[in-house]
Every structure is written in C-alpha cells, then in structure tokens.
TrEMBL record:
Protein function: Provides the (R)-glutamate required for cell wall biosynthesis.
Lineage: Bacteria, Bacillati, Bacillota, Bacilli, Lactobacillales
Name of protein: Glutamate racemase
Active site (catalytic residues): 78, 189
Pfam families (alphabetical): Asp_Glu_race (PF01177)
Length: 270
C-alpha cells in the first residue's frame, strides 16, 4: 500500500520486547520528523524459543493492533518474526518491512568471505540469513549460532553482565571454533545491540554488524519513494507493551532515545 493520505500517520514498530528499540534509535536519527508507535510483547518474550505457528499468531496480534492505530507502515524490528515475514505479508495489505533482507543486502556490500550470525534459536533454524546472504554472495561461508537465553537476559532489564558475558562468549566462541578467521559477526537479534559494548569488549578484533541502520534506511527510502513522509512538524513517540513500562524507560535511557510521550501497558496477545 502507498497511500499519501496516511503520510502524517505514525510508523508502527514491533518486537517481542525491548529489542526493537535499537531500530527506533536508527529511525529517530534518520527520520526525526516521524511519529512512532512501538509495540513490545514482553509478556510473551522470548519468541525465539517458540514454533512457527505460534510466532505467526503472536505477530498477527501485534500487526492488528498497529493497524487499528492507523500506522502507515509496519516495521518488524525483530529478526525472529522477520524470518516468517512472507506469512504475514500474505495476510495484510499494509506494507510490512522485515529486518533480515536489508541486513543481507548490507552484508553483500562488505563482501566477507566468511561471516558469523548470532541470533535466536528460531532465526538460526530457519536459515533465512544463510539463504539471503547466499543470494548475493554464493561463495561466502555463513556460521550461524542460536542462543536460547541471551535475548531474555537482556529483556529482563537487569543487566547481569556476568551472565550476559558468559552467554556472549559461549555463542561467539562456538563460531570461532568452527573458523578462527571470521572477522565479521551479524547481531541477528535486535536485543543484542543493546549490549554491543559487551560484544566489543570481549572481542575487540571482530566487527559486529547491527542491521538496524539498514532497516531504517529501507524505511526512509520507501516513505520517500511513495511520498509518505510526514509533512507536519509535530511528531510523537508512543510505546505500548504487554510488559513493565519501567523496563522500557530504562532501555530508552540507555539507548538515548527521544523521550516517549507515553509508555502504556496493553495486552494484544493472550
Ligand atoms: N528481538 C528478537 C529478534 O530480533 C528476539 C527476541 C525473542 O526471542 O523474542 O529476534
């Protein structure tokens, strides 16, 4: 859909929890004039240990909510849900943007011979990163590693760095055990850039790729192309979550986002 009448409506951004705020950070820098309605389904997080049908159902609940709030585009700021984006675009007319494809397009530009991907267990099992990267770079070796617990450790907002560092080390070491020459690793879960400093501190020799910027660039190009940018000067940032608003406030401050107008508890999936 490319409806100019919607141009002053908000961009809808969704994740299983606080991770998608890393995409909001990039959107606010690239599109400061745009309103954003964010939904984080923290009560059901992590999605990455669930099955496909469940993830489609949970994602649909959030999209229905964002559509009811008349957003002009839906940004899936979650790699796990993005791996099943085709199942969602089939069901809805509104433009739905995933994060895996823009990330792979960026990787194609840096042309690594070998690349690692750390993500959720579900994302890794779908091989979507491997498949998209191989579309652009058939010769590149992709080492994917799924963590069952890192997203949840970050989602809790407790920042227990003993546990977080141990999990990062376990996942990254298992990639390096396969191939010690890997020098680029994609943070294939939007929660992970919240602790980018930890990844970098533990592995200063590795370049960690945060795909959030590429997804935000794609959104900017899309809205520009279809003449759907906000023409007004007023913008709002509204957060809804099925979890605890206080955790969102903590992450908003950590990522230095614009101050949200409201953070409201709202259940969309039972
Ligand atoms: N933020 C989600 C992602 O990018 C993962 C968190 C979860 O497992 O729910 O994959």
């Amino acid at each position: 859909m490319n409806d100019k009448n919607l141009s002053n409506n908000a961009i809808g951004v969704m994740d299983s929890g606080v991770g998608g705020l890393t995409v909001v950070s990039e959107l606010q820098q690239l599109l400061p004039n745009e309103s954003i309605i964010y939904y984080g389904d923290s009560a059901n997080c992590p999605y990455g240990n669930r099955g496909e049908d469940e993830i489609v159902a949970l994602a649909s609940g959030i999209i229905d909510f964002l559509e009811a709030n008349q957003v002009k585009i839906v940004v899936i700021a979650c790699n796990t849900m993005s791996t099943i984006v085709n199942k969602l675009t089939q069901k809805y007319d509104i433009e739905i943007v995933g994060i895996v494809r823009p990330a792979a397009a960026f990787i194609a530009k840096i042309k690594p011979k070998k690349i690692g991907v750390v993500a959720t267990v579900f994302t890794t099992s779908t091989k979507e990163y491997d498949n998209y990267i191989h579309k652009y770079l058939p010769e590149t070796t992709v080492y994917s590693q799924g963590s069952p617990s890192l997203a949840a450790l970050i989602e809790s907002g407790e920042f227990d760095y003993t546990k977080i560092d141990a999990e990062i080390t376990k996942e990254v070491d298992s990639i390096l055990k396969h191939d010690s020459e890997v020098s680029d690793i994609v943070l294939g879960c939007t929660h992970y850039p919240i602790v980018l400093d930890q990844f970098q501190k533990l592995y200063p020799q590795i370049r960690f790729v945060n795909p959030a910027h590429e997804q935000a660039l794609y959104v900017k190009d899309y809205l520009t192309h279809y003449d759907m940018l906000n023409s007004g000067s007023h913008s709002e940032f509204t957060i809804y979550t099925s979890g605890e608003p206080i955790t969102y406030k903590k992450i908003v401050d950590k990522l230095k986002l614009q101050t949200p107008t409201t953070i409201t508890q709202k259940i969309v999936n039972n």
